[in-house]
Amino acid sequence: MALIVQKYGGTSVGSPERIKNVARRVAKFKAQGHQVVVAVSAMSGETNRLIALAKEIQTTPDPRELDVIVSTGEQVTIGLLAMALQAEGLQARSYTGSQVKILTDSAHTKARILSIDEQNIRADLANDYVVVVAGFQGVDEHGNITTLGRGGSDTTGVALAAALRADECQIYTDVDGVYTTDPRVVPEARRLKSITFEEMLEMASLGSKVLQIRSVEFAGKYKVKLRVLSSFLDEPGEGTLITFEENTMEQAIISGIAFNRDEAKITVIGVPDKPGIAYQILGPVSDANIDVDMIIQNVGTDGTTDFSFTVNRSEFAKAMDILKNQVQPHIGARDVVGDNKTAKVSVVGVGMRSHVGIASKMFRTLAEEGINIQMISTSEIKISVVIDEKYLELAVRVLHKAFDLDQEDA
Amino acid sequence: MALIVQKYGGTSVGSPERIKNVARRVAKFKAQGHQVVVAVSAMSGETNRLIALAKEIQTTPDPRELDVIVSTGEQVTIGLLAMALQAEGLQARSYTGSQVKILTDSAHTKARILSIDEQNIRADLANDYVVVVAGFQGVDEHGNITTLGRGGSDTTGVALAAALRADECQIYTDVDGVYTTDPRVVPEARRLKSITFEEMLEMASLGSKVLQIRSVEFAGKYKVKLRVLSSFLDEPGEGTLITFEENTMEQAIISGIAFNRDEAKITVIGVPDKPGIAYQILGPVSDANIDVDMIIQNVGTDGTTDFSFTVNRSEFAKAMDILKNQVQPHIGARDVVGDNKTAKVSVVGVGMRSHVGIASKMFRTLAEEGINIQMISTSEIKISVVIDEKYLELAVRVLHKAFDLDQEDA
Questions:
Q1: Per the domain annotation, does B72 fall within a domain?
Q2: Would you tell me which residues 287-346 of chain B have a C-beta closer than 8 angstroms to some C-beta of chain A?
Q3: Do A330 and A398 have their domain in common?
């Protein structure tokens, strides 16, 4: 008998029929003798409907009141799923984040979980109940309703698994696991049986949007065994296990090729090379709520340096405006240039730590196809390059082949 | 400066535009220096939508889970109204029933309020906040979400006014007050400036559906000054004040004519006149969840008696079936006869206590029009008769005129 936490996203509970499907799946696990806790999202479309309603009242909705409104989406789902489980002949009880209670800080619309009181859930499990918990939401120390931000239901699932010391946290989604790269770009892409947390973090942040980054961080911190499965297959199979332990013996060198099409590159040229300059450049960008991805600064030679970074393409114009009109005159840079027709490709793998030559193999493979590398950024387990957008698919395909990702791993 | 509790129903908050109207009205009261607490219903249609969703999962939804789902309707409204108040430049904060906390018993879908913790609300009022509270809902001692049943938002408003010892509880609705009778039947019907609680109770239970009965009982018990006003007029006027004190000096003898079209009459003939017989007749009816309205039993003469009662017309067939097939053979009654083409007309007024002859005037007025009276039932402040449905409008008109209800009162 195992204690399993399952998390179902919005499309998996998008209609009464789908909610009944989820109940049938939970019933299978119960029939195998497992204890099950389920975390659910709002029915697909519901969160957007509620936000739109709020914006009809206030263009920029008050964060506290927005959380009051938006949290009702998951509250409806937990009631419906508890009923569907009862219709399957199971005992079931629903809990809002506040009822559990899932204590968070007070950062409305992007709160962080501080603790989970698992006593009620444990008592229900001991009495053979299936426990259904609203994802995405919590309550602060003053009793205010909070939400964790988009995708926060994954985090709820993992946090519940951590608090309950569950044997496994299963994230049901619309894909059947994590792939070596996007199968729409490379038909030979394979589902990985397992991937390390660190690789998953790099894959997620690089655009393989299977799991919320925060939930993966959380799972790593609390050593939760995390598995990604399909909620649309009758037999979801084994999905992809996200492992905490590194097993370098069996580990492939590279786990996957991640990419992001929506990159725009900006370079500030001739920046005075002195302390505090990075903040003077990025501070105004950050103040405008523009997310910055890669940041590169080379060592200066003539007392000045070039400073490059990438932003989401949709915010390129806004970022360029800030840099040209606020930053450049203020810091006395020579010029600001940008390119919004770029893309980022990354090879990710824990194995590269102990294998030299990964970077040179990557660069050589791209060179052989005549693909120019515009920016390079590396971490311990990934190498990212920015290239011209038109070469993106080609780059992903040749790298996938060069690193033998189409071959079944041991 | 007064402390006012205002309650707005589903149609008054039925769209973002109407919610903004409510906010503007509250702002006017604030500008006059008053403290305002607002209780709101779900947006019109929302509760029905949620119940229909639940019934897609379970034909008879689990009451605890149904409350979890349905309570989200008011939760959305409080967030939206708090935002709309902020958009009017006011400070505002929303509370669910659980956040307040409005403690109820555990009778899901028809819970009763046990107590209200008014500390947070008082603190907010002291800090110049408008407080917005979800109507219709509460929380039991175990932290389960409960609802008060349909129309329970009125009860929430009155209960808040009682707990806060508010100067007035204003119920905004789609009519501008309580009328002497339905203006659609009698164009001369007048809005009453005031009506006593007891009269209001009789008027409400007789089909003048301006206020929930329970909220009026509650107001009477806690001596809350209750006022019915229109939420659709720019200047709602003074509406109708529901008074706790009787002022017999100025009180008109009769306040109004109430009526109910959907009555069906059932008579059990030749019932053995012995103890327990009423229960043997009505027990099975009640077990089938059929509400019984008037009940009449005459003194028996030959050891048997006739026992009559009325039910809602929609339940007539079901009730007849129970009586014919279960009750009659069991108690040995001679026959069961019924008529579902009847209606009930009542004259209501505290003044009739000290005035003889009201009943005889009522009966004479009906007789002069050739309207036969089938059943009579009286209380201290009302006289009800059951008549053939086809005479209903005529009866209401002639009684309205006979008791001078079209004349302005002092």
A1: yes
A2: none
A3: yes
- Tell me if chain A has a CB within 8 Å of the CB of B89: no
CA distances from A128 to A3, A26, A91, A135, B66 (A): 12, 13, 7, 22, 21
Residue B310 covered by a domain: yes
Is B68–A96 a contact, with Cβ atoms under 8 angstroms apart?
A: yes
CATH code of A208's domain: 3.40.1160.10
The rounded distance, in Å, linking the Cα atoms of A362 and A384 is 10
Residue A407 in any domain: the answer is: no
Question: For A161, what's the count of Cα atoms within 13 Å in the CB-facing half-sphere?
Answer: 31
Cβ–Cβ under 8 Å, residues B281 and B311? no
Contact A84, A47 (CB under 8 A): no
User: Do B125 and B131 touch, CB atoms closer than 8 A?
Assistant: yes
Q: Which residues of B touch A98 (CB under 8 A)?
A: 98
What range does the domain containing B267 cover?
257-402
Out of A57, A79, A82, closest to residue B83 by CB? A57
Q: From A283, A339, A346, A269, select the one nearest A311 (Cα to Cα).
A: A339
In a domain, A29, yes or no: yes
Cα A2 to chain center, whole Å? Answer: 27
- Chain A residues within an 8 Å CB radius of B82: 62, 65, 68
Instruction: Report whether the peptide linkage leading into residue A101 is cis, meaning its omega lies within 30 degrees of zero.
Output: yes
A58 touches chain B (CB under 8 A): yes
Query: Domain boundary residue among A218, A248, A278?
Result: A248
Query: Tell me, what's the ipTM?
Result: 0.75
| pLDDT per residue as tens digits for the range A41-93 | 999 999 999 999 999 999 999 999 999 999 999 999 999 999 999 999 999 99
Q: Residues A114, A25: one domain?
A: yes
Residues A273 and A374 in one domain: yes
pTM of the model: 0.78
Most distant pair of Cα atoms in chain A: their distance: 76
Torsion of CA A323, A328, A333, A334, to 10 degrees: 90
Provide the pLDDT for residue A205.
60
A45: its two tokens: 């479309």
Smallest CA–CA distance, residue A29 to chain B, in Å, is 20
Distance of CA B372 to the CA centre of its chain: 29
Beta carbons of A94 and B58 less than 8 Å apart: no
Of A1-15, A61-75, B229-243, B393-407, the range with the lowest mean pLDDT is: B229-243
Name the domain boundary from A231, A248, A265. A248
Within its chain, how far is the Cα of B246 from the centroid? 21
